[in-house]
Structures are given as C-alpha cells and as structure tokens.
Amino acid sequence: MSDKKIGIDKIGLYLPPYYIDMVDLAHERGEDADKYTLGLGQEKMAVPPESQDTVSMAANAALQILDDDDREKIDLVVLATETGIDKSKAGSVYIHHLTGIQPFARSIEMKQACYSGTAGLQLAVSHIANHPGSRALVIASDIAKYGLNSGGEPTQGAGAVAMLIKEDPRIAIVEPDSVSMSRDIMDFWKPNYLEYPEVKGQYSSMQYLDVLSKVWAEYQKRHDVTVEDFESFIFHIPFTKLGEKGLRKVMKGAAEDKKAELKKHYEHTRLLSKNAGNIYTGSLFLGFLSSLVNDPHLSAGDRIGAFSYGSGAVGEFFSMELVEDYRERIDLEAIQSLFDNRHKLSIQEYEDSYNKELPVDGSEYETDYSGDNSAIIVAGIKDHERQYRVR
C-alpha cells in the first residue's frame, strides 16, 4: 500500500460545439425567461451534434490532458456515464484505444445515475494506493435529454470531464473520508424500452436535499467537523439553483460571515454549469473545475467539501485539499476557447438537430460532421459498429 497523497493531477473538459440560449428557449416555449435564468439558474445549454456521443466526448476531454508519459503509466481507464452506447461493451475500451494508452490496462464503465463519476474517482484512488507509481484516467461523460417541450428540457446539457489520478497530485488531494448512503427510490430512471427517462422532478429535488442533509450529518459525526473546517463546497448541480439550495442545507447554523463567504465561493462554482447545462456524471466535477478556474479566493491548503448525488439513489460526501500552484496545472485558455468558439443555434436548428438521431435498425449511416472540428468524432455506423475518427 502507498502512504503517499493521491488525487487529481490533471483535469480537462470537452463541450459540444453548439449551444442554445435559455432566454430563446423560454420565449419559444411560452415561458417567462426568469423561470429558466433565475428559477433554474441556467443561461446556456450545450447541444451535441450527431457526430458526438459519450465515447467521443470522453476521448476529446482526455486528449486535453494526456501526454506520452501518462499513456505509458495509465493502467486503469474508467468511464462514468448513464448514457452509454452499448449494453455489453464498456465505452472505456474505445477510449483506451482512441487515446493511445498502453495495452496493459483495465478498462471499465460504471453506472449509477449522476453519482458514478464519484464512484470512479474513489475506485481510482484505491487502485493507485494498491499500485504505487501507476496512473488512472477517470472520465465522466453524458448527454442529458428529456424530450422537446418536456418539463426537463431546460435542464438538459452535454459534455465530459476527464481527470488523471496519481500519487502526489498537482491539483487536489482526495481525502480518505468519504461517507455514502443508498436508498431505493424512483425519482429518475431510464427503462431500456423508453427513449427518454421517467422523472419526478420536485420529488427528486426533495430526495437530493434529504440525502444531502443526512450524509452531511453523518460525515460531521464521523469526522468531528463543522462547516467552519471548509473553505468552499461543490455539489452535483443538474441545475445551479439546486446546488444553491444544497449549500443552504450545509451551512445551516453557521455564522453569518461564514455564510456570506460560502455563498461567494458558490457563485464561482456554478459559472461553467450555467453555460453548459446538466452533464449528469460530470456535473460535480464541472463545478469543481469552475471553482479552480474562476474563484480568486481559493488557495493551496483549502479544504473543499463535495456532495455527489445519483438518482435512485446514492449520495456521497467527501473532501479534497488543494495543493500548491494548482491553477498552473489547468489549461485555462483551452477551457475558455470551448465556450468562446461554440456556435449558437436557433431554436429551430436545435429542434432539427435534436430529432436527428443515429439509426437503431442496423442500417449503415454517415454522420454530418461538417460543423464539428473536434479531434475525435463519430463518423457513422457500419455493420452495427460505430465508426470513430481521429483527426
């Protein structure tokens, strides 16, 4: 077993090259724009073209951070997703190949709604502890779709967050303090035979907040800590207003100056999510990345509390400690360019794109990737096999 600190050494992001404005969507749906921008806390929604799926997005995110040394030392690849492309083959096997990782690696896919990104992170930390000197690649990649004109439509999104896990990390140490809980509920689920998920929106939000309250209380009891022991908190944020409600739960009873400080931090945490939407398994880590990129009040040694939630349900609270010069490990320019270089779609263009799905009848198909300049794309389907292209 390794006695070294283990955690996140690199973190990368991929977003599709298209988005819609939430004000435009609200007007088209006959809603007050404030319902989406203030009530949900969302401003833009990432829209994936047919040339991107969870595998290609994950591989694109990984390419942002991997170098040749990483490729030689990675021996675990984890894809966390709830929008997988195959009922048997793990998407991580494709990613392992597309990113050029050495052959003697374990590749798996994990599922538990939006929680499995955290499960993948914890698995990777345990793996590194048992295999000193190795590295692990964990990618949370998802496409959130509820259907046009549905109640969940304004909480859609798409994207992937990739993390390199190793000893002596240069961004954040993952502390061995996690507390999890499970409860068998039906707040959000996706039967194999349905195109879109079944959702009990208000009930799901209530369950999210109740699980948070209970797992946070248990965490405090086990580790004898209070809100004062944390500089900032990050949350799973399917829409950023829910994370704000979660923060209120966590800081209940705290001094007013501490509450004001935590609220200030949270505003930085949600900036990227406000402009990307819900990316399911990657949502928590998009919030973490947003803090790293945008929050000028964080510094080395700060303790970050993290709450992960996946409907159905599993919740977990854990903490991370920022290390010296963590911002230097992040490609700020690449992340900013993802947002700056996106093409805005009209609502009609978005709806046309939404209904343009890859065939499910086994027929051969070539995607239209003319507007997608991503390094890795889905070029089509042949003989029931997705054709990925590295450019």
From TrEMBL:
InterPro entries: HMG_CoA_synt_C_dom (IPR013746), HMG_CoA_synth_N (IPR013528), HMG_CoA_synthase_prok (IPR011554), Thiolase-like (IPR016039)
The protein's name: Hydroxymethylglutaryl-CoA synthase
Enzyme Commission number(s) from the entry: 2.3.3.10
Record-annotated active site: E82 (proton donor/acceptor), C114 (acyl-thioester intermediate), H236 (proton donor/acceptor)
UniProt entry keywords in alphabetical sequence: Acyltransferase, Transferase
Domain Hydroxymethylglutaryl-coenzyme A synthase N-terminal: 4-167
A GO BP annotation: acetyl-CoA metabolic process
Coiled coil regions, renumbered to chain: none
GO molecular function: hydroxymethylglutaryl-CoA synthase activity
Keyword Acyltransferase: yes
Lineage: Bacteria, Bacillati, Bacillota, Bacilli, Lactobacillales
UniProt keyword annotation of Transferase present: yes
Binding sites annotated in the UniProt record for (3S)-3-hydroxy-3-methylglutaryl-CoA: D32, Y146, K245, N278
Binding annotation for substrate: G151
Species: Atopococcus tabaci
Segments forming domain Hydroxymethylglutaryl-coenzyme A synthase C-terminal: 250-355
Family: Belongs to the thiolase-like superfamily. HMG-CoA synthase family.
